[in-house]
Every structure is written in structure tokens, then in C-alpha cells.
Amino acid sequence: MEYFDRFAIPHPSPAIYASMVAIGLTVIAILIGLTYFKKWGYLWREWLTTVDHKKIGILYLISALLMLFRGGVDALMMRAQTAVPDNTLLDAQHYNEVFTTHGVVMIIFMAMPFIYALMNFVVPLQIGARDVAFPRLNALSFWLFFMGAMLFNISFVVGGSPDAGWTSYFPLAGNDFSQSVGTNYYLLSIQIAGIGTLISGINFMTTIFKMRAPGMKLMKMPMFTWTALITNAIVVFAFPVLTVTLLLGTMDRLFGTHIFSMTNGGMDMLWANLFWVWGHPEVYILILPAFGIYSEVVSTFSQRNLYGYKSMVASIVIISFFSFLVWTHHFFTMGQGPLTNSIFSITTMAIAIPTGIKIFNWLLTMRKGKIKFTVPMLYTVGFIPIFTIGGVTGVMLGMASADYQYHNTMFLVAHFHYTIIPGVVFAMLAGLTYWWPKMFGFMLNERIGKWAFWFIMIGFNVTFFPMFFTGLDGQARRMYTYSEATGFGPLNMLSFVGAIGLAIGFAIIVYNVYYSTRYASRDIGTDPWNARTLEWATQTPVQSYNFARTPHVNSIEAFWDHKKKGQPLFKGEIEKIHMPNNSGVPFIMSCIFFVWGFSFVFSMWIPAIITTIAIFACMAHRSFEKDDGHYISVEEIEATEKNSEVLADENR
Amino acid sequence: MRKKWAFLGLVISLFAMLAGCEPLMVLDPKGPQAETTANVIWISIATMAFVVVAVFGLLAYIVFKYRASKQSEDYEPPHIEGNPIVESIIVGIPIIIIIFLSIVTVKSTYEVEATPKGYEGQKPLVVYASSSDWKWHFSYPEENIETVNYLYIPTDRPLEFRLYSYGPITSFWIPQLGGQKYAMSDMVTTLHLAAEVPGEYMGRNANFSGKGFAENIFHVEAMPEAEFNEWVADVKATAEPLTEEKFNELLEPGHLGQLTFSGTHLEFLPPPEGHHHGANQSHEDEADPTGAHDEIEANHSDHQ
Questions:
Q1: What's residue B3's pLDDT?
Q2: Yes or no, beta carbons of A338 and B213 under 8 Å apart
Q3: How high does pLDDT run on average in chain B?
Q4: Has residue B124 got a pLDDT over 60?
Q5: What is the DSSP string of B7-71?
């Protein structure tokens, strides 16, 4: 039995045992349900083996929403624990695990899949393509991410969660100070998911460069596609750094190297530098697609073209460049000296300039428009003031001398939630509501959606605004408790109240999905928002081949000009369409990766070696496999297209 | 929409109110360095308030004026590509703001990284502050005494803290005296502070360092020089000497109360000064082009 001791939880609590039971029951329920309803074949054919970018997008979406709730529960536990002084709801160790997993889950396993969900679904449609450049790699990306996420999530029931913060600074995360396998989970699950993301980066850059519809020059791409392109460029440059950093960390923890250790020439400062060389660009990986979504939404619901298209493009390119030149601002206090800090202060503050351009361009797009306050537009209009506060506090943090006082405090926590929540969560909710009808064939209820928006908007501000004050009053972040004498109590209680408001807002969104699935009209046409870009020129729901005939583009808003000026969009006859075949290899290979990661976490070398060989075997199999895809015949296309409004328009 | 504006208005007035009447620790400085950073913070808040008001005002005006419900059915929004003059303004004004803030930043960063202004002529009190899980050891080499978890300092005299760690990265922070700096295991960092008002202050490790992090606090007491000297003499006379054995006991993870010793651990366990780290080694004798290294270099030279 000694062998199995390693899988035990080092710090068990009733909540964890309850979660174990809940996880067990859910898994059993899913297995029984699938068997009872005979859905195994459906699941395998339609989802596990799919290479369709739209279905992969939806898989990403489901995973992201699940992780949003996992991370959200972590957040609520933290706010509950700190709501009153000297609280004993969680002990220090448990609290440390909770804030660590909250950070990792929200950034790596919620925000990343959310942006890839929307990129997957929307980008090929926006550029008039039939799929991404490498559909099977795309499936591999998703399944690697998914298995990474699952590996991370079992940590709290098998072996213990990581507890060194999402930044996982060494030597705290090294074997001396973090003895459970938690940090191994951190290193390996992010590694697996990160490989998936890196593959996606290459895939999407290739897609956008090579597969745009005829006539769509780079400067005629919709803004979301532009941001997707630049985001993936950042991914391709930043993620290899993460891969290497995690590898070095793994070497230190599992194989006794001394790269980040305190002795034998190790250097703890190296981890912080490498981590943030990836970590800061990562922030822009998250926020640029959000900027793209807001650009689409603002223009659609102001019923105007996007103001300053060229300066928008220029600003995202400049932001992506600067994102690699600011990483030191995460540790101004490491003693680099005033010259280094001054340089990085200036580059940091300079990012405010292109970001400001974007804010003003959105405002100027709304000017002279005809603004409809739909749910996506509410999130956009709500985003602007909150993100402005997040941005200006970012400039304040960028001033090195003042940062010595903000660093590691709740002020910083308030700041990054003021950027990431409006910058990612609001954007994803806006994008989700906006593209929902294209994904699922019905619209989310507007009235319920607005209720959710107000709860989230108000709850958010009540939660995070007080933190600016507690931070300036000396409350360090990541403290599991504080004494009454500090006076932090009332404002922390206010934060907790706000967090409950946020939770209610997200619960309303869940209810909205349920309500709309049951009662919403399915008869919404192909373009319910009166939108401007190509994805709305497809049928609802979108056919597997996206476009029966390839669209021809000669302006930035091809679909709008087609509707308003009657510019022809689809020319020529329907021809047979070549499509990729489904494949089970990405799923199987990712399952092997899961076992591989698990074996490394627990230093079980025999399964680790077997799975390593199996992974290479999967790649070899792919190399020798003959798979030329399949054709969809003209008759089949015509049959499915019969009801298409777009075609009907054309024929009139 | 009005609900939201009313709410945001409330939040902003709350900010002004709170900041105005209740002294937040960071904005209630008791020494020259903290005063410099507090001034920088106030300058940045004022500048940024201008940006916030401009954006909020514009947004409110536009959202109010151009909402669909206020416009005629057949209003067709115009197609506008952009305007070079407008776009130069939205680039130009932020550039001016950033240049202004950059000057403030560079100037103040050099200030807080050096001996406090007005104290240049005085000989600083050197204190080695080292952290171990989860406590602080303060060694006064010239006085030849050492304390744990509390720090007595003289007012109106420059203080030079040499920071390092016997464990994870920690951050030495006394908010009312100045900004924080990391203490690490493989090098010594230097923090220049001074206290001008006698009193008791909160000091803590601000950087997460594991289980006992929340309680990793130390007590700071600033007192006139004469009183400080009295305390030193008293400690020397009464406190038990710090032995290597005793110090190793103190390093064990856990929490300790306030302890006082005569003698310091610097004698038998020297701080990680002088030996350069890894990649830096080869540069040791070369002229170093960066200011960052100069600073480290300076630390070494005056304590070898």
C-alpha cells in the first residue's frame, strides 16, 4: 500500500472529500447516461474525432465555461475567507492552494480556451475559409489543452494542489519549500496545454495568411481577424519561452538540477525573468482578441463602420511589439537599480498610448452612430470606463518609484482584475452573446442577459474597487488572514458582498442558457443583429463546409456592402468541396499525454517511458497514414443549401 | 444607463473622500523616501483623474446623444474612415502625458534608490535584514547586536538596509518609511530609508513565501538618536550572545516572538555579498556598462 500513499491528499478537508464524492458521482452519471441513451457512437463521431473548426470552437467554449465556474468557486472561497479578520474558514495551506489554482485556472484554462473558442468559430468564417489550415492539428490543440486542464484539475483530489502562487516563483516552488506534488502538476499540465496553444498559434497564423477569400487583402480583414493574427504571432514568440521555463522547472524538481535553486549556483531571479518574458506578452494574448470583439460589436450596434481602421491595426501591432519589452515591471523591486527600472517604466507607460488610441476610436465609432443597447453592446459600453480605470492604474503601477509601494499589494490585485475582467471576461461574454445565434441557431434572451450584465457590472466594481484602498493601506496580497487591528475588515467584507453579486450574475447567465434553449425562437434568419462581416453570410446553423461558394471580397465590410450596395458576394457555380476526414488520433494521443503527465507528476518512470514511446508512435502513424480527405458532391450541397437566404438573395 | 453613471460617480467621490480624510498608510509618510513616493502617487492620481474624467465624460455624452431610441427611424449613420487631425490629437495628448509622467518617474526612482535627500553628509546606520521562514533577523554590525522580528531605528539619520534571505524570495516593506525591496538567497540588495517622526510602524514581508506568510510581520520603532543609543547599550549589557547553534535553531521554519541578542550572525554566517552570481562572474573585473551592475558593485566594494 505504501506505493499508493503518494496519491493521498497532504491536507485533506471535508470540502475536498465532498468534491471527491461529487466528481466520482458525476463521472458515473455521465458514463451511465451515455450508455443508457446510446450516445457513445454519437460522441465519438461528432465530437471526439471532429476536425471541424466550429465544433472544436464549441468544445473550447464548454471547457472554458466549466473552468470559469471552477475558478469562480476558488474566488468565492478566497473572498469568504478574507471577509472578516482572523477567519478560520480556510487554513493557510488551503488558502494558498486556492489562490494558486484560481490564478492558473482563470488565465490558462479559462481565458485561453475562451479566446480560442471564439477564434476557432469565427476566424475561418470571417475570412471566408472552409476550415483552418491544419484541421487535425487544431483538434490536437484542443485535446492537449483539455487534457492539460483535466490533469491540473485532478490535483486537488489526487496528491495535492500547487501552492506557490500562479507565478510559482522558485525557490518557493522548489522541492525544499513545496514538498507535495502540487507544483509538478502545475509544471506538467501547463506544459501540455501550452504545447496545444503553440500549435494553435502556428495554425491560425497560417490560416489567416493563406486562406483568406479572394480579394481580402490584409488591410481588408475584419478587426477580430486582425487581432487574432497578431495574438497568434505573440503566441508563437512567447510560448516557446514558457515551454523552456517549465522544462527547466521540471528538471529542478524531478531530476535534481540546480537551475533555480538556492545552492550550487542556482539563480532564483532567473525564473522570475523567464516567467514574465512569457507572462507579460500573455496578458496581450488575452486582451487583443477582446479588443477585436469590441471592435466588431461597437461597429455592429452603432450601425457604423469602425472609426480609424488603420490606426486600430497600427495600435495592435505596436502593442504586440511593446508587450515583449516590459517584463521587468513585474519585479521592479528586485534591485536592478534605477536605470533599468526607468527604462522599463517608460516602455510600460508607452503601451498606454496605442491602447488609448483604441479607446478613442471606439468612442468615435459610437459618435454619429445609432446605438442599440443589446447585451453585447452593454458589455462593450461597460468595458470602456472600467478598463480606463484599469489602464490608468496600470500607468501608475508602471512608475517604478511608486510601484515600490504598490508591488505585492491589493492595489495590484485590483488593477489586474480591472484590466482582465473587462478586458477578457466582459469581451468573452459580449462575443459569446453576439455569436451565440451563429453557433446554436437561437438567441440568448436579452432581458435576462441584461439582468446578468448589471449584476456582473455592479458586483465587479463593489468587489474590486475597495482593494485599491486596502492596498494603499498596506494589505499585502495572498494573505490568508489579517488581524482586526489592521482595519482591513470592512472593505474586505464589501469585496465579499460584491463577489456574491458577481456569482449571482454568472448564475443568471447559466439560467439564461437554459431558458433560451427551451423557449427561444429558432426562426432567426442568418443575420439577426444586422451585422457587417462575412460570418453572417453563412446559414444558421453553419453548414460543415461553411460557404457553398467562396465569397469574393472587395471592401472591409464585404457583407454590409453586399446588403446595402448590392455588391455581389458569391460568384460562379457550386462546385464539389474538398473537406478533411475526422480522426481519432488527436484525442487518443492527448489521452496518452494525460497519462504521460500524470506519470511524471508522480515520478513513475515505467509508464512515463511507455507513454513517451506511444506519443512518438502516434506521430509516426500520422506520418505514414494516407488520408486525402473527402469530397462533398454538388447535389448534396444544393440539397442542403435550398433554404439558404443568402442563395435566395443571389438568385433573385 | 443613468444608474451606472450614478454608481460610478459615487465610487469616485468615495475615492476622493476616503483618500482625503482617513490616512492610508502609503499616503501617510513618516520619512523622506515615503514622502517622495507619496508625492509621485498624488501626481499620478491627479494626472490620471484628468484622463478618467475626459473618457467618462466623452462616453456619457456620446452614449446619451447617439442612442437609437433618440433618433429618427430613417437616420443612416455616415461612413467615416478617420480624420488625421482627430487621430493626431488622440495620439498627441497621451504622448505628452506619458512624457510628463516619465520625467517624474525617472527623477523619483533615482531619488528613492539613493541616500535620502538632505542626509548625504551623515554616516548611515547599516542594518542587515535577513528573512527566514517566517521571521526577520536584524543585525546591527557596528553596534554588534541582533534582533528578531523587531527593529529599533534612530530618527533623522539615514538607514541602509542590506537585504537577503535564508529561504524563498521575500520583500522587505515598511510602508510609512518607503517602498519595498526583495530579499533573495543569492545576493544582497540595498534599501535606503530614513525616519523623521518617532513612532511605531508596521513592517512586513510583502512577497508570498508559503504557509506562514500572513504572519510574517515585524515591528518598527523609530526614536531619537540618544534613546536609540541607550537601547543599544542596554542590549549589549543584558542580552545573551547569539551563538551559531542558537542561530541555526532560529532558522528552522516557524514563528518566533521578538528576540534580542548581543553579537550578530554575520560573523559566523556571512551574507551572500561579494561572490558574484553565475553569469556575472566573468564580468567582475571588466568595466560594467549598466547602471544596474554599478549599484551592485558599489554594495560590494564598501563592504569587503
A1: 56
A2: no
A3: 85
A4: yes
A5: HHHHHHHHHHHHHHHS--GGGS--SHHHHHHHHHHHHHHHHHHHHHHHHHHHHHHHHHHTBGGGS
- Report yes or no: A259 and A270 within 8 Å, Cβ to Cβ: yes
Report residue A484 as a C-alpha cell: 482586526
**Cβ of A371 and B66 within 8 Å?**
yes
Q: Do A333 and B213 lie within an 8 Å CB cutoff?
A: no
Rounded Cα–Cα distance for residues A173 and A246 (Å)? 12
Q: Which residue of A367, A474, A477 is in closest CB contact with B66?
A: A367
The string of DSSP letters for A514-577 reads HHHHHHS-S---S-TT---SGGGGS-SSPPTTS-SS-B---STTHHHHHHHH----B-S----E
**Which residues of chain A does B96 touch, with a Cβ-Cβ cutoff of 8 Å?**
none
Q: Which residues of B touch A267 (CB under 8 A)?
A: 186, 277-278
Give residue-wise pLDDT tens across range B236-277.
Answer: 999 999 999 999 999 999 999 999 999 999 999 999 886 544
Please compute, for residue B84, the number of CA atoms within 13 A of its CA located in the half-sphere on the CB side: 0
Q: What is the ipTM of this complex?
A: 0.91
Q: Which residues of B touch A163 (CB under 8 A)?
A: 210
Q: Which amino acid is residue A174, in one-letter code?
A: G
For residue B16, the chain A residue with the least C-alpha distance is: A469
Tell me which residue has cell 528586485. A334
CB A163 within 8 A of CB A139: no
pLDDT at res. B294: 41
A457 to chain B: which residues are within 8 Å by CB? 4
- Of the candidates B62, B113, B184, which has its C-beta nearest A366's C-beta? B62
Task: Establish if A333 touches chain B: CB-CB under 8 angstroms.
Answer: yes
User: Does A303 touch chain B if contact means CB atoms closer than 8 Å?
Assistant: yes
- Residue A68's contacts (CB-CB under 8 Å, 6 or more residues apart) are A106, A110, A114, A425, A506
* A158 CB-contact burial (10 Å; exposed 0-12 / middle 13-18 / buried 19+): middle
A400 with B109: Cβ contact below 8 A: yes
Identify the DSSP state of A106.
I
Domain annotation for chain B: domains and CATH numbers: 2-71+78-112 (1.10.287.90), 125-273 (2.60.40.420)
In what order do the strands lie in the sheet containing B181-183? B150-154, B217-223, B199-205, B170-173, B181-183
Longest dimension (CA), chain B: 92
Residue in B with minimal Cα distance to A334: B182
- pLDDT average per 10 residues of sequence, chain A (652 residues): 76 80 88 90 92 96 94 94 93 93 96 96 94 95 96 90 93 91 95 96 96 93 96 97 96 93 87 96 95 96 93 95 95 93 95 94 93 95 96 95 96 96 95 95 95 96 96 94 92 96 96 96 89 90 89 90 87 89 94 96 95 96 89 88 57 41
Alpha-carbon gap, residue A350 to A478, rounded angstroms: 29
CB contact under 8 A, B80 and A366: no
A416 phi and psi angles, rounded to 5 deg:
-75, -25
Q: pLDDT-derived band of residue B69, with 50, 70 and 90 as boundaries? A: confident
* Separation CA A330–CA A328 (nearest Å): 5
**What pLDDT, on a 0 to 100 scale, did the predictor assign at position B290?**
42
Instruction: Say which residue the cell 499585502 belongs to.
Output: A476
d(CA A348, CA A325): 8
Give the nearest chain A residue to B92 (CA atoms).
Answer: A353
> Which residues fall within 8 angstroms of residue A406, CB to CB, at 6 or more apart?
A396, A397, A412, A415, A471, A472
Q: Which residues of B touch A409 (CB under 8 A)?
A: 206
Any idea which residue has 491536507 for its cell? A11
B278: pLDDT strictly greater than 60: no
Q: How many C-beta atoms surround the C-beta of residue A423 within 10 A?
A: 28
Choose, out of B39, B207, B273, B282, the residue to mutate when testing the contact with A (most A CBs < 10 Å). B207
Residue B285's pLDDT is what? 39
- For residue A77, is it left (φ>0), alpha (ψ between -120 and 50) or beta? alpha
